[in-house]
Write a structure and sequence with these properties.
mainly alpha
Length: about 220
């Protein structure tokens, strides 16, 4: 699609840039590698911008810069900026004012604990994969809403604090590492969403070495 659009936009200039079929074939291969993973709407937006920015067909580097502006057109951070934002705010994600809900949900899918404890070579590919999948949903028109922190009674707050402290001590971790996993306690008891979040938290804690059963 990209080269067909370039050929139509730049006509003889495109032919000058890629004078033989072999050059076109090699160029297409390099572009395919460089653009792997980018969504169609972002690529289409960047192609439109090439008309405004470049009199000749852009290089791969120039086109990648235009894709970054395409994220902005949807109100999104580019994947790398989103990753750095998630890492900076991973301790208390529900209290942070995110640049876009997509960053929060990508962090949640990746696992806030992994973002804090794993090396970048592990956490970055996971986050990027999750973020791009969520960007697809945003571009498709889905509206993402970050859950609100619901104020709970003091008695429940004390119990939550005790539970957080207990689990943190059992795993030799900071309480800030555990608190996001206990978000389910702020959902209404008996609801499906509380049960679902609790199951996720239980699974993650078991993977971290915690064997006790979380309260309902």
């Amino acid at each position: 699609m990209i080269f067909a659009r370039f050929k139509a936009i730049y006509t003889h200039k495109f032919a000058s840039a890629y004078s033989t079929l072999e050059e076109v074939k090699l160029a297409k291969r390099e572009w395919a590698v460089a653009l792997k993973g980018f969504q169609e709407p972002l690529l289409a937006y960047a192609v439109e911008r090439t008309k405004e920015e470049y009199a000749w067909p852009p290089t791969i580097s120039e086109f990648l810069k235009l894709i970054s502006t395409a994220y902005k057109a949807y109100g999104l951070a580019n994947p790398r900026a989103a990753y750095l934002e998630a890492c900076a705010c991973r301790t208390d994600p529900l209290s942070y004012k995110w640049s876009h809900p997509a960053v929060f949900f990508a962090g949640s899918e990746t696992d806030w604990y992994k973002l804090k404890s794993e090396e970048e070579r592990v956490s970055w590919p996971l986050f990027e994969q999750n973020y791009l999948a969520i960007v697809d949903r945003v571009i498709a028109g889905e509206r993402l809403v970050i859950p609100k922190v619901v104020m709970i009674e003091n008695k429940q707050t004390v119990n939550l604090n005790n539970l957080t402290s207990k689990i943190a001590k059992a795993l030799s971790l900071e309480e800030d590492d555990i608190a996001p996993l206990l978000y389910y306690t702020q959902k209404t008891q008996g609801t499906g969403v509380r049960t679902r979040y609790r199951e996720i938290a239980q699974k993650k804690l078991m993977e971290m070495g915690y064997k006790e059963t979380l309260p309902e």
